[in-house]
Amino acid sequence: MFATYLIGLREGLEATLVVSILVAFLVKSDRRNRLPHVWLGVGLAVALSVFFGWLIEYTSTTLLNTSKQRELFDAVTSVAAVVFVTFMIFWMRKAARSIAGELRGKLSEALAVGAFAVTGMAFLAVIREGLETALIFYSAAESAAGGTGRGPLLALIGGIATSVVIGFLLYRSALRLNLGKFFTWTGALLILVAAGIFKYGVHDFQEADVVPGLNTHAFDISSVLDPNTWYATLLSGMFNITPTPSVLEMVAWVAYAVPVMVLFLRKPGRPAAPAKPAATDVPAPTPQRA
C-alpha cells in the first residue's frame, strides 16, 4: 500500500504542479475566461487515464484465458512500467527548472489559437502523468500480493488526494516545499519500487516459461524473513523482497537498482566554460627603409 501511495503522491503532485502553473498563468494574465477550457482538458485526461487503468485490468482478468497468458501480460506491463517510471524520474530531475517556462510558452501559443487549443494543451500536459500512473499502479499492485483487495487502490487515491492538497497549498503560498529534495527522495524510493516491479516481471516471465530458472533459488532466508510477519509483508509489498527469489530475479533486481540509483544520485556536472580563442602569432612588421 505504501508503494502505491508513493506512486499516487509523486505522479499526482507532478500533475497538480502542471495544472497550478497553467491556472496561475491565466489568472495573472487576466484570462480567467479560459479556465473552464483548462479544467475540461484536465478532466478528459483523468477520464482517459481511469479508462486505461480499467482496460489493463479487464484485459488481464477477462480477455486472457490461460494463466500463462496472464503471467506473460503481467510481465510485459511490469517491464513497460519500469521503463516509464525510469524515464519519468530522470525527466523530472532535468526539466524541473524549465517546465514552468515551457508550459507558459505553450499556453500562450494555445491562447492565440483558441479554446480548442487550450483544452488540448491542458489535456496533453496531464495525460502523460495519468497514463503512467495507471500503468505503474497496476504493476505495483500486482507485484504486491498479486494485487488482491482494495488496499492498493485506496492507497493510490490517498496519495493523489494528498498531492492535490499540497498543490493547492503551494498555489495559495500557504506551504513552502523544497521540490528539489522532495523529487530526489521520492525518486530514490521509486527506483527501489521499480526494481521490485522489474524483479516481479522476471518472475512472471519464468512463470510463463519464457525464461528458465524459476526453481533455481539464489538463497533461502525463510527462517529470518518469515512471510507471515508484518515486516516481510512490508518489504514484499514495497520492494518485492521475498525469502526465496530465483537467481535471475536477483540478477535483474541488482542490474536495475544499482546503476540507476548511482546515475540518479550523481550530481550533474557543471557545464564546461567556453574555451578562450587561442592567441594567433602575428609576425612583427618589418621596418621599411625610406
UniProtKB/TrEMBL annotation:
GO cellular component: high-affinity iron permease complex
GO molecular function: ferrous iron transmembrane transporter activity
Organism superkingdom: Bacteria
Region: Disordered, residue numbers: 271-290
Key words of the record: Membrane, Transmembrane, Transmembrane helix
Membrane topology label: Multi-pass membrane protein
InterPro entries xrefs: FTR1/Fip1/EfeU
Transmembrane intervals: 6-26, 38-56, 72-91, 111-131, 151-170, 182-202, 247-265
Location of this chain's protein in the cell: Membrane
UniProt feature, compositional bias: Low complexity: 272-283
Assigned protein family: Belongs to the oxidase-dependent Fe transporter (OFeT) (TC 9.A.10.1) family.
The protein's name in its UniProt record: High-affinity iron transporter
